[in-house]
Design goal:
The chain is globular. α20 packs antiparallel against α21. α15 (215-225) links the parallel β4 and β5 (229-233). 69% of the residues lie in helices and 6% in strands. By secondary structure, the chain is mostly helical.
């Protein structure tokens, strides 16, 4: 179906049948429209996006990938963009505005002032927060009632306000100073007796997050308490906005991608179809770092040139020891880094985690060492080489397991992202220790 719609869009763009194309887009989901725009050439994409009315454009724009969205934002007129932002929730509108330069931001917000001053004020307030904290995630559109309001008053207020707020199953209860007091389920409100007050119906033990909480911690709150909405408060517990689960799904995707990129020395802006020079510029610095770490590992090998020249067979098995250690270290590193991200690893259970990974390293080392020893003997017919290989693998697997756990924990303690450089450190360590243990044992025993 996607291919059929794409072909139809191309046909209508080529024939200039704007009315038919507009009608086709009106029948599609915004995510499907975004998929079609991703496949169009840049000029055709701009032409198609111009045919979307402001309401539909406001739903499609957040669904677009960075490259396509930036191309549209670069060419769209400020007044048109202001009209689109007016149709968005404040958090999504703020995300869009944050991608503009200062001059365009000023012009767009000035245009939005003439359409809806309240929306532009909300965006200005949200822009003041870092994008990776609760304040940068929240939306200002909420339904809140005062604790002394009666049931019928609350229902009437909801009727008047519901068009501004999407997907509300709970309303927030505050006092006269707008301090958060509780949360009230809409279903419970509808079933309540006529004169019941909000404070009698609300849940008092409401979970909230401070406005400056890091987005990873916010995501952890959603996981821990199995909720799909969180109120955001300031230091005085004044209600500022809300974060919904769809925002957190985006955060989880973003954090997972960011960690995966960091572990291999890439920036999250590097995409499949980024320009070659941009990708090369982003990747080269980390590769240069890897080059120097490889030189360091090679320098360890050079210390045993005499042994290698006498027993050339050692060169065959060297990559096995280093490679298996690197793989084992990366496995441990991934498990520990994920545990840190999910909040599973705390100050109190760190020692237990280190001990567990040390045991895993010993078990893996013994198993793989025995297999390696057997392979070396059957392959080359030299039992001593097999024993040296097996012993070196045991040593390197233990090192990989222990330091694969220790390094991200230390980096977290030093307030450095564990995903940032742990990979290259553990790889270098296992390479160096693998070569040193294998060639060192060979020098002693051969």
């Amino acid at each position: 179906m996607g291919e059929l719609y794409f072909s139809k869009v191309i046909e209508l763009l080529n024939t200039g049948d704007s009315a038919a194309l507009h009608g086709l887009f009106a029948r599609l989901h915004e995510a499907d429209i975004a998929d079609i725009l991703h496949e169009l050439p840049p000029d055709k994409c701009l032409e198609a996006f111009r045919l979307l009315d402001e309401e539909l454009a406001s739903e499609v724009l957040p669904e677009l990938n960075d490259d396509v969205r930036n191309n549209i934002l670069e060419h769209i007129h400020e007044k048109r963009l202001a009209g689109i932002l007016d149709e968005m929730d404040s958090d999504e509108a703020t995300d869009i505005v944050s991608e503009l330069d200062d001059e365009r931001t000023r012009k767009v917000l000035a245009s939005l002032d003439t359409i809806n001053r309240e929306d532009s004020d909300d965006i200005r307030q949200l822009l003041a927060y870092d994008e990776d904290v609760a304040g940068g995630l929240m939306q200002k559109e909420i339904i809140s009632v005062q604790e002394n309001m009666k049931r019928d008053e609350m229902i009437e207020y909801i009727r008047e306000s519901h068009e501004e707020v999407e997907n509300f199953h709970y309303i927030f209860v505050t006092d006269e100073q707008h301090k958060l007091k509780g949360i009230l389920e809409v279903t419970k409100l509808l079933l309540a007796k006529q004169n019941k007050l909000a404070k009698d119906l609300m849940e008092n033990d409401v979970i909230s997050v401070p406005v400056n909480m890091d987005q990873e911690q916010v995501a952890h709150m959603f996981r821990k308490y199995d909720i799909y909405i969180l109120p955001v408060v300031d230091e005085n517990n004044v209600l500022l906005g809300r974060i919904t689960v769809d925002d957190i799904i985006d955060v989880i995707d973003e954090e997972a991608s960011e960690d995966a990129y960091k572990m291999v020395g890439l920036e999250s802006e590097d995409r499949v179809f980024s320009k070659p020079l941009q990708s090369a510029r982003r990747r080269t610095p980390w590769l240069i770092v890897n080059l120097f770490t490889a030189v360091f590992a090679a320098s360890v090998v050079s210390l045993f040139e005499g042994t290698i020249s006498r027993f050339v067979i050692l060169a065959v098995f060297m990559p096995i020891v280093a490679g298996m250690g690197g793989n084992a270290g990366t496995q441990t590193l991934t498990v520990i880094t994920r545990g840190i991200a999910l909040g599973e690893l705390t100050f109190y259970n760190t020692r237990k985690a280190l001990f567990k990974e040390l045991i895993v390293g010993i078990i893996n080392g013994v198993v793989l060492g025995i297999i390696g020893c057997a392979v070396a003997y059957l392959w080359k017919g030299n039992m001593l080489i097999g024993l040296i290989l097996g012993a070196a693998m045991v040593i390197n697997m233990i090192i990989a397991g222990f330091f694969g756990a220790l390094i991200p924990i230390l980096m977290k303690t030093l307030k450095i992202d564990p995903a940032l450089a742990s990979g290259v450190i553990i790889t270098t360590l296992t390479d160096v220790c693998g070569f040193a243990s294998f060639l060192g044992l060979a020098t002693l025993l051969l």
